[in-house]
Write a structure and sequence with these properties.
This protein has three helices and seven strands. With 154 residues, the protein is α+β, with helices and mostly antiparallel strands. The protein has one domain: Mannose-Binding Protein A, Chain A. Strands 1, 2, 3, 4, 5, 6 and 7 form a seven-stranded mixed beta sheet that branches.
Length: 154
């Protein structure tokens, strides 16, 4: 059994050059990926922690249903949560096939954008921490009790 935990690394304008969506995905090392958000609480955490207009790891997989259809996460996770700003995604001017998260000016809402625009980005690293099964603790306790009783009876 493991407990999942995510670590984040941010590259902001002024600290490092902004990157296009494709530049960030091509240069990610050590198993990280552009940020994916699966709940309102995750969205709020990222907004409160980083407060920057940043790329999301969301993209449109097909043009069949513009502007709002066929969005996916680069990790393959289900795209079951979204926080689009009113009127978004809108594919304004065509070619808006990736997503960004706005800063607190727009309460962390999302916008679709062209992949060649420059934005800050947040890299998410998934970490699994091994935790013994509860049955393992019970077995260890029984063994310790048996050993203690065995020593006492000698």
């Amino acid at each position: 059994m493991g407990i999942g935990m995510n670590l984040f690394q941010q590259a902001r304008h002024g600290q490092q050059q902004e990157q296009t969506f494709l530049d960030t995905t091509a240069g990610i090392l050590y198993g990280g990926h552009l940020l994916t958000l699966n709940s309102a609480s995750e969205n709020t955490f990222v907004l409160n922690t980083f407060n920057a207009n940043s790329w999301l790891g969301a993209y449109q997989t097909s043009k069949a249903s513009e502007p709002g259809g066929y969005w996916a996460w680069i990790t393959g996770e289900a795209f079951s949560y979204s926080n689009w700003r009113s009127g978004e995604p809108n594919n304004s001017g065509g070619g808006e096939d990736v997503a960004e998260m706005y800063n607190s000016t727009y309460s962390g809402q999302w916008n679709d954008l062209g992949a060649t625009n420059g934005r800050s980005y947040i890299i998410e690293y998934g970490i699994i921490i091994s935790v013994p099964e509860p049955a393992t603790f019970a077995m260890a306790a029984l063994i310790l009790v048996a050993v203690a009783l065995g020593k006492r009876n000698r």
